[in-house]
Amino acid sequence: MAVVTGISRFEGRSSVKTWLFKILTNIAKTRALRERRTIPFSEFEVENSDEPAVGAERFLPASHPQWPHHWATPPQPWSMGPEGTALDRETMAVVRRALEDLPRAQRVVVALRDVHGWPAADVCAALDLSEANQRVLLHRGRSRLRAVLERYFSDTDPGERDHV
pTM of the entire structure? Predict the structure, then answer.
C-alpha cells in the first residue's frame, strides 16, 4: 500500500528497486518500534507447559489396527431426556466459567474460534499469531474445557446437577 499511495512522490533520483527497498526498510523499522512495546500472545503464561494438554491414556495405542492415536473415548452428549434444556443452560454456565479461567491467550483464541466462529486464518491475522501457535493455543484451551466438562459430568449424577 505504501508503494501505491507514494508512487506520485517518486522523483526518479534513484532506481525503483532502491526506492522500494527504502519503503520496505522504513515500514520494518516502524513495525519493530511498535512491536517492541507489545507482548506477543506466545509469551503469555502457559501453565505446566511441560505437561501434555491431554494425557496419553486418553488415546488409542499406536498399535491399534484401525485408529492409532485417535481418541479412546469420544465426548459424551451433554443432554438426555426432558431435563435437557435446563441441563444445557447449566452446562453452558460451567463452560463460561471454565473459559474465563483459561490463560488469556487460550481464552481469546478459543472464544474467537468456537464462540464467535472465526476461521483460523482470521484469528491468526487479528492476533498476529502463527498458524502453529494458534493451533497449540486452541488445542490446549479446548483440552482444558473438555477436562472441566468431564469432571463436571463424572462428579455429579443428573439428580444432583438439578440442585447445583
Answer: 0.50
